[in-house]
């Protein structure tokens, strides 16, 4: 339990990749703050399960990643109730797909706010506390779309490229304080979100499940396999180890070879 006594905040951790990060940190004894939207009873069940796993505290904070004041308050709450934060993961994200001429302005603003600016606000609030502690781990879930583009994803690709630049900048600013700042860039990850798209696509395109998986979803991914949330979370856990202290400012791909092509 190498994270015993440490605290972690994971934004957007009520489902998918974020929840897997929270479980991984808890499995090593960290106290965690989970965040995001969803059914209150489901969230409470996950929170209680994290406490049972870690033997440490788990809090839920409903901070909306479009609201800088709520983000700063979540960091202060963690500091007051759990100490730290020792680890922060900027993970909350949304997607919207449309060509530029049809892209709704409010969707652009929301994606830039949630997928990019929230990471700035998280780091702005947490870095002074990490500098004082002389230890910190900052991880952002970027994407293969922080390295390459796809059509009809202007806001998402812009936000993720921005997150990669922000990661490098804050890595340089914190390098002598025992703090590392890295991005993890997954390809297609098997989450409930992806799974739910399959039956609709099978019907719309008259395809089998295998055809939808390989010819639609995994077209860009050379391994023709989804990344799992556990694989992404395992890398985040590694980045928190002392052995990973020289890895900073990196953008680490977990994308089945997508960005090698
Ligand atoms: P998901 O939809 O399962 O999880 C997104 C989380 O963000 C949820 O907990 C949701 O409640 C939260 N969220 C959304 N808006 C929020 C807001 N305004 N304030 C606070 N929380 C908010 O999706 P996921 O697949 O787990 O994605 C997590 C991250 O991984 C995102 O940044 C996404 O861009 C990135 N990513 C996902 C994939 C993939 O294939 N699934 C690939 C690459 C990168």
From TrEMBL:
<dbReference type="InterPro" id="IPR002347">
    <property type="entry name" value="SDR_fam"/>
</dbReference>
<comment type="similarity">
    <text>Belongs to the short-chain dehydrogenases/reductases (SDR) family.</text>
</comment>
<dbReference type="InterPro" id="IPR020904">
    <property type="entry name" value="Sc_DH/Rdtase_CS"/>
</dbReference>
<dbReference type="GO" id="GO:0032787">
    <property type="term" value="P:monocarboxylic acid metabolic process"/>
</dbReference>
<protein>
    <submittedName>
        <fullName>3-hydroxybutyrate dehydrogenase</fullName>
        <ecNumber>1.1.1.30</ecNumber>
    </submittedName>
</protein>
<keyword id="KW-0560">Oxidoreductase</keyword>
<dbReference type="InterPro" id="IPR036291">
    <property type="entry name" value="NAD(P)-bd_dom_sf"/>
</dbReference>
<dbReference type="GO" id="GO:0003858">
    <property type="term" value="F:3-hydroxybutyrate dehydrogenase activity"/>
</dbReference>
<dbReference type="Pfam" id="PF13561">
    <property type="entry name" value="adh_short_C2"/>
</dbReference>
<dbReference type="InterPro" id="IPR050259">
    <property type="entry name" value="SDR"/>
</dbReference>
<dbReference type="InterPro" id="IPR011294">
    <property type="entry name" value="3-OHbutyrate_DH"/>
</dbReference>
């Amino acid at each position: 339990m190498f994270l015993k006594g440490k605290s972690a905040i994971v934004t957007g951790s009520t489902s998918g990749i974020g929840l897997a990060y929270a479980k991984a940190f808890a499995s090593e004894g960290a106290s965690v703050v989970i965040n995001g939207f969803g059914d209150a009873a489901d969230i409470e069940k996950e929170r209680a399960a994290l406490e049972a796993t870690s033997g440490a505290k788990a809090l839920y904070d409903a901070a909306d990643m479009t609201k800088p004041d709520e983000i700063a308050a979540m960091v202060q709450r963690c500091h007051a109730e759990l100490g730290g934060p020792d680890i922060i993961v900027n993970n909350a994200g949304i997607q919207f797909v449309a060509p530029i001429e049809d892209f709704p302005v409010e969707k652009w603003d929301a994606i830039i706010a949630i997928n990019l600016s929230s990471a700035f606000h998280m780091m702005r609030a947490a870095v002074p506390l990490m500098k004082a502690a002389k230890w910190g781990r900052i991880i952002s879930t970027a994407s293969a779309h922080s390295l390459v583009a796809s059509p009809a994803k202007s806001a998402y690709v812009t936000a993720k490229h921005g997150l990669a630049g922000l990661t490098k900048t804050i890595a340089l600013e914190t390098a002598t304080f025992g703090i590392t700042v890295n991005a993890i860039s997954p390809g297609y990850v098997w989450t409930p979100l992806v799974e739910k798209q399959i039956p609709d696509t099978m019907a719309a395109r008259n395809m089998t499940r295998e055809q939808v998986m390989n010819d639609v979803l995994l077209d860009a991914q050379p391994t023709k396999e989804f990344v799992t949330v556990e694989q992404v979370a395992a890398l985040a856990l590694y980045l928190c180890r002392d052995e990973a202290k020289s890895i900073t400012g990196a953008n680490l791909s977990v994308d089945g070879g997508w960005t090698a092509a």
